[in-house]
Amino acid sequence: MKNIMYIIIGTLLFALAVTQLAMPNSIAEGGIVGMSLLIYYGLDISPSISTPIIFLLLLGVGIRYLPRHMVYKTIFNVALFSIFIWIFEGLYARPMEDPMLAAIFAGAITGVGFGFIYQAGSSVGGTSIIARAFNQQLGWDLTGMTLVLDALVVIAGIFIIGPVSTMYTLITLYIGKVVTDFVLGGFDSKKALNVVSPYSEQISERITKELASSATVFDGRGEYMKEQRRVLYIVIHSHRLLRLKRVIKEVDPNAFIVVHNVKDVSGGTFSIGHEEVRS
């Protein structure tokens, strides 16, 4: 039930962004929605009609390469999207004086919508179907192939909506991706650190006492110096990163520190004491 609600909310937001911001301002998209918008700009055929047709054609080619649960969710998603487009097209939306604002807000709203849709394990991209087929048959990279196919849709827009509107489309796509990552990963982002130091025990004690955080310890070996080192692996909230680095440098100014972006943290306890968080 939760996944269905996510799909409905995400698709509703996506359809609003398309009809109220993208279509009045000649902004396209990636995937089958991008194809449908280009058809709309070129032939004046509503995306509510062309989207399910294109999707069904792609599905006929690649259905055997997709998990069944994903097929069912995506069919539901595309049907719902077409209905929402048909409803919202009746709401009159005028072009904005500043197309940049339209591109920014279209990307932001689309990003939130996609975040909900992806959380439910669904999609309206369409090009992922062909990308998965190439992956299964030829071993081509799934993510890279999806990106190439979406890029081809965007490039085709140059010949239909012109280079300026295509550049606004790229802005929309970029903002949409950033916002989607925030929705999927949460605004309370985390960082992961690898710390190599001969003073790892002192560092571990200080971050436990002063930052109420914990560390996982690995045994490592430096190939150049042929020395054994203990490696600390620490996951911490992003807003506490500078304080953690300061503590490490106070113990060992020469500590080797690598910081990684973390998309998701689940399972286990990465904070202890009064700030304990079960992820």
What does this structure look like?
The chain is of the alpha+beta class. It has 2 domains: 2-185, no CATH class; 190-278, 2-Layer Sandwich (Alpha-Beta Plaits), CATH 3.30.70. 59% of the residues lie in helices and 13% in strands. The chain is built from 10 helices and 6 strands; from the N terminus they run H-H-H-H-H-H-H-H-E-H-E-E-H-E-E-E. The strands form 2 sheets. The protein has a 4-stranded antiparallel β-sheet with strand order 2-3-1-4, with no helix packed on it. Strand 5 (269-271) and strand 6 (277-278) form a beta hairpin. Helix 1 (2-22) packs antiparallel against helix 5. Mean pLDDT is 82; it is low at 271-279.
Number of helices: 10
Oligomer: single chain
| Largest sheet: number of strands, sense, barrel closure | 4 strands, antiparallel
Number of strands: 6
Distance between the termini: 23 Å
Identify low-pLDDT runs.
Answer: 271-279
The average pLDDT is: 82
- Order of strands across the main sheet: 2-3-1-4
Overall geometric form: elongated
Please give the share of residues in helix: 55-70%
Question: Beta-strand level of the residues, as a percent range?
Answer: 5-15%
Which secondary-structure class do the elements indicate?
alpha+beta
Q: How many domain regions?
A: 2
Order of helices and strands: HHHHHHHHEHEEHEEE
Radius of gyration: 24 Å
InterPro entries: DUF2179, N-reg_PII/ATP_PRibTrfase_C, UPF0750_membrane, YitT
Subcellular location: Cell membrane
Domain DUF2179: 214-267
GO cellular component, one term: plasma membrane
